[in-house]
Design brief:
Helix content: under 10%
Largest sheet: 5 strands, antiparallel
Number of strands: 10
Radius of gyration: 21 Å
Order of helices and strands: HEEEEEEEEEE
Number of domains: 1
Strand content: over 45%
Distance between the termini: 41 Å
Shape: elongated
Length: 131
């Protein structure tokens, strides 16, 4: 009888599926001097990173984002930058924000802060994505 219960316990723990990581959909709006230059949307798995590039009359900009879900909200870490005349990436700032799910959060970088050529604003809304 004891052997049967031990085998039953092993079987039930072995068949439990691991919890899949959370997935978030990010709706972003990148503005330069108050003018929207990009409105990208991306889906990220918790802990995963992405890089988005955008070209406008002001030049090429990039956004790198990483998400990490938590009890207080979604931690979103960004790297904001541009590409100089020689094609070298220039990082303007590495801000991060804890956003409540389904609530917009905005980060603003003023002209000349970190080398930014203009006022740069990034608004992001994180939603839990369905799998």
């Amino acid at each position: 009888m004891k052997l049967f219960l031990a085998l039953l316990a092993l079987t039930s723990t072995a068949s439990a599926a691991p919890t899949p990581p959370k997935t978030y959909e990010l709706d972003m709006k990148l503005s330069l001097d108050g003018k929207t230059i990009a409105s990208p949307r991306a889906t990220l798995v918790d802990g995963q990173s992405l890089t988005l590039k955008e070209r406008s009359e002001a030049g090429e900009t990039f956004i790198e984002a990483t998400v990490q879900g938590g009890k207080q909200g979604v931690l979103i870490k960004f790297t904001l930058g541009g590409v100089d005349a020689q094609g070298k990436r220039v990082v303007y700032a590495r801000p991060q924000v804890i956003a409540a799910e389904n609530q917009a959060a905005t980060i603003t970088l003023r002209e000349n802060e970190g080398g930014s050529p203009a006022d740069l604003s990034l608004t992001v809304t994180a939603r839990r994505a369905e799998r």
